[in-house]
Amino acid sequence: MAKWQRRRAAEPSITERKSFVAPTGTAWVTLEHAGNSVDYTLRTVGEFDVETVSCLHDALRVIPQTRSGRTIIDVSQVGFGDSSFLEALIRAHFQERTLILAGPLPPELRRLLQLTGALRMFHIEPHEVS
Q: What does the pLDDT read at residue 91?
């Protein structure tokens, strides 16, 4: 079991859950946060491109920008992600918080990260968020 999963298992149940849906409805993000935790989890689902990535931007804006805590993005349900999705992940990576991509990474997303050289910049946990 990964370190971030052990820490999450000790947390109480989710006290805040908010959904962000793309205008076309083909992508959405669910933000989860336990009230006494500094960690936030974003579950991304669907196809992310220039027309739908706004739901990820909106979810990321809700998270406080502090040095403590982690942002965990579960990408296991991403069916497609283009350069605008990659750009959102890179922006999140350069925020104050530690960013973790939880997966398994979908093959298309892994290929995008490899082809662009961005794979090495992310901390990736191969297990889905529980």
A: 95
Q: How far is CA 104 from CA 17, 65, 101, 123, in A?
A: 23, 26, 9, 12
Could you give the 3-state DSSP secondary structure of residue 55?
helix
CB 68 within 8 A of CB 98: no
CB atoms within 10 A of CB 50: 11
- CB of 57 within 8 A of CB of 90? no
Judge contact between 104 and 78, C-beta under 8 A.
no
Task: Indicate if the pLDDT at residue 83 is higher than 80.
Answer: yes
Average pLDDT over residues 14-33: 92
Domains of the chain: 19-35+45-125 (3.30.750.24)
pLDDT score for 36: 76
DSSP 73-120: EEEEEEEEE-HHHHHHHHHHHTSSSEEEEESPPPHHHHHHHHHHT-GG
Pick from 48, 51, 49, 58: nearest CA to 20: 58
Cα 25 to Cα 117: distance, rounded to the nearest angstrom: 30
